[in-house]
Amino acid sequence: MTKRIGFLSFGHWSDSPYSRVRSAADAHLQTIELAVAAEELGADGAYVRVHHFARQLASPFPLLAAIGARTSRIEIGTAVIDMRYENPYYMAEDAGAADVIAGGRLQLGISRGSPEQVIDGYRHFGHIPAEGEDDGTMARRTAQEFLGLLDGVGFAEPNPRPMFPNPPGLLRVEPHSAGLRERIWWGAATNATAEWAASLGMNMMTSTLKFDESGQPLHIQQTEQINAFHAAWRAAGHDREPRTSVSRSIFPLTDDRDRAYFGRSQDTDQIGYIDETTRAVFGRTYAAEPDVLVGQLAADTAIAAADTLLLTIPNQLGVDYNAHVIENVLRHVAPELGWR
Question: Is the peptide bond before 80 cis (omega within 30 degrees of 0)?
């Protein structure tokens, strides 16, 4: 099964002497340069993770627009934006602008978000759950508002004396990018939220971690999640085929740098708690000689079930090294597994 293969960067920066990414400017500019390099290598996507109150990428739309202006083919996207922090109206404008700049290549992953750097950080952005809501419910409500705005239906009463002439009827947020609504993904940590995403016609992302719902290895739980998503999609009666993605840390060991960085990586799933009560399974790192790696990845049923694979990258090792990792996967691993 052929797959779209892209990279996913958290965009960390640090003034550590061991980091090739020493500042916020480095993180953003190097992400653009890596996207250009990935396109030249034949990769299919450049995705970024969004975290607030951290020395990581936090404001995705200027970055996505810049990548869109520098590339011509690859998909560009997020995995994921925390909807607890978002104004859906402003977000619809930003997403529309980034998508028209990229020529309709935006693939926008959104979600409830992960544990934060600060306590209830979304409150500092002016977002407070309504009575009877928790932050997850607020995020899903905001996501549904955002989806509605992307439909492009007018809703705002025009001023009878506008500064500029209006088209007839109610007005919508602009720019509207046709087709973007079908390129929204929900980052699901449970089977239930995967099914919810399917009911609303969103694509589905599943990450390098998932809430532990059965005690099975990550790839088995994610395969069940992907199957549940597809069943819910069929039940909803949507008239297009959905997409699903999985994220993995994959490092073919082809030279001394690879072996120094990843030769002793953890090769089993890990169990942990992302808050006081939520048990999660964290995926292993795949790091081995290419022929060994092919056998290991062939046994990952979630990768097999998904149409898109996102390679989580160690961005602080710099553009050249991460381009090397992407090239190794595309050259030494993907063809052997039928992904190319």
Answer: yes
Long-range CB contact pairs, 319-322, < 8 A, 24+: 319/20, 319/30, 319/33, 319/34, 319/37, 321/20, 321/257, 322/7, 322/9, 322/34
Q: What is the CA radius of gyration of the chain?
A: 20
In this prediction, residue 19 has a pLDDT band, given cuts at 50, 70 and 90, of very high
For residue range 222-236, what is the model confidence (pLDDT) as tens digits? 999 999 999 999 999
The class that CATH gives domain 4-337 is alpha beta
Q: How far is CA 153 from the centre of its chain?
A: 27
Q: Distance between CA atoms of 145 and 50, rounded to whole angstroms?
A: 20
List the chain domain ranges.
Answer: 4-337
Q: Residue 178: CB partners within 8 Å, gap ≥ 6?
A: 104, 152
**Burial of 21 from C-beta contacts in 10 A (0-12 / 13-18 / 19+):** buried
Q: Is the pLDDT of residue 116 over 90?
A: no
Q: Is the dihedral of CA 16, 22, 28, 29 positive or negative?
A: negative
pLDDT category at 277 given cuts 50, 70, 90 is: confident
Taking only the tens place, the pLDDT of each residue in 300-332 is 999 999 999 999 999 999 999 999 999 999 999
Q: Are strands 279-282 and 209-211 parallel, antiparallel or unpaired?
A: antiparallel
